[in-house]
Amino acid sequence: MMRPARIALVVGTTGALILAVVLSAQQVRPAAPMQIEKVKDGLYLIRGPFNRCAPNGCGGAFGDDGLLHEAGDVAVRVTSEGLILVDDKYQDNVAEILEKVRSVSPLPVKYVLNTHHHTDHAGGDATFITTTEIIAHRNVRENFLRNKQPGAPRVTFTDQASVVLGGVEVRAYYFGRGHTNGDAVIHFPDLRVIHTGDLITEGMPVMDYRNGASAVEWVSVLDKILDLDFDVAIPGHGPLLTRERIRSDRQKLVTMNQRMADLARKNVPIDQVFGQLRLEDLGWNHTVSTVAFRGGLSGYYEEMKSQPPVFAADPLSGTWTTGGPSPQTFVFKASGDRFGGIACGPCDRAESVFRVEDGRILDATHVSFFVSYDTAGPRFRELGRYRDRVVGSLADGQLALSAQPEGRNVPASTLRLTRVVHGFVPDTSNVPPSSLLTADPAAAPSPIEGRWVFAGRVAQQNVILKVRGQKIWGVICGPCDPGGVTLIDDGSFDGTTLRFYINHIDTPPSPAQRGVRRNIMTGTLSGNVMRFTWVREGAETEPGGDIVMFGPIRE
Q1: Element (H, E) at 274
Q2: Residues 49-85 as b or e (16 or more Cβ within 10 Å = b)
Q3: What is the pTM assigned to this prediction?
Q4: Average pLDDT over the chain, rounded to whole?
Q5: Please, are residues 503 and 485 in contact by the beta-carbon 8 Å criterion?
Q6: Which range of residues forms the domain containing residue 518?
Q7: Mean pLDDT, rounded, for 182-197
Q8: Residue 267: Cβ-neighbour burial (10 angstroms; 0-12, 13-18, 19+)
Q9: Cis geometry, peptide bond prior to residue 552 (ω within 30 degrees of 0)
Q10: Number of separate domains in the chain
């Protein structure tokens, strides 16, 4: 008997709320009206209204850029006990928001979660605060108060919060500074959907430095978002997006940060910076947020100017190739400002697999390393054992290399590499240093050095083991085209027992993979047979597998 009365009270309250908002709303005719769409069962997205120039129309610095703009996306989670909203647009939009909400459920709005404080996302708090509990990161409340913005949330959190209503849980996470200092990511775990706020939009990133933004920290925030379990993302503005779009925007932000850091350190005048960021090749030169981005350009310039001149390890680590019918392949593994790896081509022959050592990350765009040719190589017959000193520069996703034999007055050769997995950037923040970081001592090859084989699930797997003294490194591939080459390092051999690591950086490509995954291989040698067991590093107590390899195969 109580439920009908409760519903009647709720409807009456909602009606009064709508009336109050209608009386104060601006009578501006939008280019396109507000709309609601289903995301998944029990979850809806409210977009619009759509206006020229800016979310609330033309005026001030916002002229007609030919695009339609909208206030922040609102998520509506329907439960049996009421509704949970994520964001509430401008205060003038609340009446229409409630009309759209009532089109999918008659139940009251019980909670509003703010992604951040900007009025195109949280302006409606000034109205909802009278009837609804609003939850936000503590910095959001502080930003409300400092900016004298009405409707400051009364419930705040520091790192994580959960709302449970009608048996449905909605989680809010704070991963660090990005668009502002209070950006929350909202996770609907049962539906595998997130709401990113303005950490991801249909446009380009915009940094609000007056309210604590950070382009540098933003990258790690996106990494943490990608660690969540989701397959659909509701952005701060725009249509539904995929996990891959977030990964792509993350790489674009890394690239833009590198460019800005380089321009700032060269003291390029601020009025010339925008044109030299080359946003057109990122697809960001004409987006719904490009004009707003320019408004925060000076803060962005100063932040990147203060960064240490270090080339990020993430864009370097992984597999690169020259392409073409006879490709050369490089696999780099960076830790901090040092890196090692391998160079090969073809990669299924021991005599054409070489060690990349003494790699140094020099500055924002430059690296140097050595390729060691101790038993073979392009100039081995002429020079004997030698090392190429290689210098490289990274720009626009390509690594340009110039190589010259160390201490020899011979012409340099050049290569241009591109990533095998385009746009893939792993998180290498916790990668342990590789044994390939330092030069290999002049040890003779072991008799077991060479190509070993075993039967893979799809094709024969080739394991090229380079064994010098008690150290092992090399590659595993099958097929041995650039997309199938995986680095072996940190190996040891005591005459009977072998142990080494297989590093899964970006091959085989895995869109869900973030960090560098390593398998630990432990085996014994008996004649021409190696018997191995393997486990995944960090999960040594879980089942792994067994492998029997035969070799070395003499070509």
Answers
A1: helix 270-276
A2: bbbbbbbbbeeeebeebebbbbbbbbbbbbbeebbbb
A3: 0.61
A4: 87
A5: no
A6: 313-553
A7: 98
A8: exposed
A9: yes
A10: 2
